[in-house]
Every structure is written in C-alpha cells, then in structure tokens.
Amino acid sequence: MADPCLSCGACCASFRVDFHVSDLENHSGGGVPVALTVPVTATLVRMRGTDDGPPRCIALEGEIGSAVRCTIYDRRPGPCRDFAPYAALNIGDEACARARRRHGLAPLGE
Ligand code: SF4
Ligand code: SF4
Q1: Which of 16, 21, 68, 82 has an alpha carbon 20 to 30 Å from 9's alpha carbon atom?
Q2: How does pLDDT run along the chain (110 residues), one tens digit per residue?
Q3: Residues near ligand 2 with C-beta < 6 Å?
C-alpha cells in the first residue's frame, strides 16, 4: 500500500510547528535551515508559514490531498518526526484525523 502521507500533507497545513533550536542546522545534530523558521523565544523556533491563516509550512511542496512532499524530509524537526508515527501504515491518531478533516479528507482507515 502506498504511504497515505504522500497524498495528504494535511498536518503540515493545520498546526503550528514549534521546536527547540537544537533542531536547527547551525546546531550539531540539527538540520532545519534557519531561513525556513521564525524565532519564538530564545530556545524555540517555528516553521515559517505554520502560524499563518490558513497555516501551511513553507517546506511543504505540492497540493494537499493530492501529491505532496516535505522538501526537508530527512532533516525535518522533532514534532514532524514524532507526528502520527503509524500513518504510513494507514493508522492515524486524533491529531492526524483532525488535520485531515480540516482539509476535507476522511480519517485514515475509514
Ligand atoms: S500524518 Fe496524517 S495528516 Fe499528516 S500527512 Fe500523514 S495522513 Fe496526512
Ligand atoms: S517541515 Fe516538513 S513535515 Fe514538518 S510541517 Fe513542514 S513540510 Fe511538514
């Protein structure tokens, strides 16, 4: 079965994505380009676009619900790595379902 996230992307256009500065490329171990973020506090940054109305992460390419790609997938920040970890197996969770409904998509597995 194809990974449903590749034809979704709803979570990347639904929630604020805030994370610790240690995930930035200028920190050892991090890889998120600083230019794709905005500072929130001294220790927190946010993916650009995720606090817009409507939200959409600057790193997301493509059309939601059709074909999408995270342009920094291999170095995406912690909250993105941790989000709905079984979605690729077509098993979502509440936040995944909320994001999908927001974009007119049925929750995974339905
Ligand atoms: S985790 Fe859920 S909301 Fe996010 S892209 Fe995958 S299916 Fe869509
Ligand atoms: S960094 Fe990638 S996975 Fe995370 S919200 Fe943005 S597009 Fe989605």
Answers
A1: 21
A2: 799 999 999 999 999 999 999 999 988 889 999 999 999 999 999 999 999 999 999 999 999 999 999 999 999 999 999 999 999 999 999 999 999 999 999 999 98
A3: 12, 17, 47, 57, 59-60, 70, 72, 76, 80
